[in-house]
Structure formats: C-alpha cells, structure tokens
Amino acid sequence: MANIIKTLKGTKDILPQDVNMWQFVEQKAQKIFSSYGFKEIRTPIIEITELFSRGVGDTTDIVNKEMYTFEKSDRSITLRPENTAGVVRSYIENGMSRLSAPVKLWYKGPMFRYERPQAGRQRQFHQVGVEMFGLKQPTADAEVILMAVNFLKSLGLNDLDVEINSLGCPNCRSEFKEKLKKAIKPYLKDLCEDCQNRFEKNPLRLLDCKVEDCQKIFAKPEIQDVLTSDFLCEECSEHYTELKLYLDRMGVKYTENKLLVRGLDYYTRTVFEIKSNNLGSQNAVCGGGRYDGLVSQLGGDETPAIGFAMGMERLISLIEKKEPKKLDCYIVSNFPADTFILAEELRSFGFNVEFDLANKKFAKQLEKASKVAKYAVILGEDEILKHEVSIKNLETGTQITVRREDLPKNIKQ
After folding, report:
1. Residue 342 in contact with residue 389, Cβ under 8 Å?
2. Do 372 and 290 belong together in one domain?
C-alpha cells in the first residue's frame, strides 16, 4: 500500500460534522455587521509581497519570520498573513474614496503564517474582521468596539475583558519613544533577542513581547513611569477622552492597558483587544485599532481608518457546540424511480431531502431516517397506487397519511 498523504503541519480539514459551527459564526457575522451598515468584501488570497512589507511593516515578526512567499514570473508573491493591507489595497485600487464616508467593509477567510501551531492557532487559520474608512472622529472607534463586543455576545461569549490604549500620532509618539528607549537601555542586554533587534527600529513593539523575563523588566518602576506618563498631544488626548466617554455611555466595560501596542506597525491612536477568560495565557479573541496613515502609505489619499480581526478557530473553540441540522425529510421506499421524482418535487419546495440510493431494506432505511431527518416520508406500493404518502414524525413517532399534493403543506405545518 502506498504511503498515505496527510495534511501539512499547521493545517486542518474542516469536516462535515464541524462545518455547522463555522457557518454559525459566519451567519452571525453577516447579521451583526450588516446591522451596522458593513458590506462584505472578498480579496485575493495572494498579493504582491510589497503590499505586506510596506503595509504591515518590515520590523514585524509577520514580515520577518512568518510569511509564505514565493517567486513567480519574476514577481514576489505572498499568501496573505492578514487582511487589512489587502482591503486597503482594494479600497485604493477600486476608487472607494469617492464613496460617501464612512466606507464600511467586513471580510472572512483564510490567512497564512509560518509559526508554531498551538491551540486555536494554525499555519492556515481563518479570520473574520471589519475595516471602516473615512472618519477621524472617535465615534468610529466607539462603534467598531461596540460592534465587536455585540458580535462576540451573539456567539454566547459573555465573559469578556475589553482593553484599550492610545498610541498617539507620529508627532507626539516620537518623544515618548525616546523616553522609553532611555528607560529600557540599562536592561537591554537582559531582553530577548527579538526585543534587542526591535530596540532601535521600533521600540514600541518591545511592549508586545510575551517573554516572561521581558515582561518583568517592563514592569520596573522607572519604565512604568514612562508608560503611564501623559505623552499624548492635545488632539490625541481629546480623541482618547471622547472615546472613553462614548464607551462609558454605551455601557462597554473596559480597562486601560498602557502595555497594549498590538503587533503591527500601522496602528495609530486607538488600539484595543478583547479577551476571553476561558482561554489560557494567549487569551485575546479580537484585536484592532486605528491606522490613519496606512492608506496614504500604500499610495492612496490621506484617509483615517479603523478595524479589527478575530481568529475564527479561537471563537469556535469557545462557543457551545451545536448539533448539525437534520434533513427535513428522508424518503423511505423500495421504488427508486418513484422516490427520485418525489425527492425532486420536495426539493423544488425548498426542503432538504435524501433517500437511500442503494435501495436497502425498508427497516434499514427507516433506521437511517431516524438518525438524519425530522420526518420520514414513506412511499410504499399502496401509497403509490392511491397517490398518497405517509409522514412519520421521527421525534414523536406519530404518523399520518396525506394526499401526495398535500405533502409539502403538511411538512411545513
């Protein structure tokens, strides 16, 4: 026997018995996001590599370590590691800036990062997310955070912690970076290799490090003094204060986390995470923030924007498992030709219908029907001669016989 070919490490099949959970999440996303006026967008899985090196940032782990990149026809192509850059590219390329602001978009689909597979995180993973373009006001930030909370609650997730922070704008952030570097420098040799590499290029990214020894250093009083200092300019401070006011008025409970910087270079001002207490140390189920400079960085006009993304594998691991939906009907009969015709009739009325293509014994068919359907539609010789069918409720065991033309009406009732 030939060796069995298996899935690549870090990838998984989504099997039929599990698909209903994915569909549940996707349907809730469609319902909640649409209620806020967001429209679905679907971008390519492959993009020019430059989109991510320019958009995500060449100091990030994603670009430096995790992208799946290959050469084709003298062009460098990458499987998308995240989707904000792709949605921004589409926004620019398709002239969406001419639309009335705000432009509200949502997406779902697979992303790809080469990292160590772990619970809820694979090398091919799936995200659902939103992007809003064209509004600089903190009302946009508040709506996006509120919508994320309401979406998670619609999935049955209520044990949530919302964390927020403001990174300021590039102007007020530059002085803060220098103060942070000065405070951290005496401990530089004790930081992990990644933090040492980030120290000059992007010191804010040090705060995103999950290494315990680094976290202990960042908790030192002199570093905390810098983190808790009020470095925001007047405009950024007003924006942050107004955001908190809106969240308070809408009843969104949150905590301020000065260590929250997110893992991507494009964030400005508001950043946020939503965490679930039902996960381990890596407990974030949603992350996002404002990226007012990304559209212009990728060739568009200056455009304020904000968004978030959620890992679908993590969401599905947290929500209550739902049983697959049963068929409306399973036709039990030993007359295949007549059964084919009846099945198609019922499907034309919108019912989900199956029957035994192998024409097994009646008892075997009825046993199968009880496992997969709500009703057994029995079509025997007497029923065919009398132009009737019998309907058996497989939950209650009750059975009635009706005229063939009345079958759809009776199933609906």
Report:
1. yes
2. no
* pLDDT number for residue 177: 82
Q: In this prediction, what percent of the chain has a pLDDT beyond 90?
A: 70
Q: At 373, which CATH number?
A: 3.40.50.800
Q: Which residues contact 10 (CB under 8 A, 6 or more apart)?
A: 114, 115, 117, 122, 123, 124
For residues 30 and 180, the model is more confident at 30
Q: What is the mean pLDDT of residues 370-387?
A: 96
Domain boundary among 318, 352, 367: 318
Task: Indicate whether 151 belongs to any domain.
Answer: yes
Q: Say if residues 332 and 366 touch (Cβ distance below 8 Å).
A: yes
* 146-170 tens-digit pLDDT: 999 999 999 999 889 999 999 999 8
Among 318, 352, 372, the domain-final residue is: 318
Q: Is the pLDDT of residue 231 over 60?
A: yes
Verify that 140 and 157 share a domain, yes or no.
yes
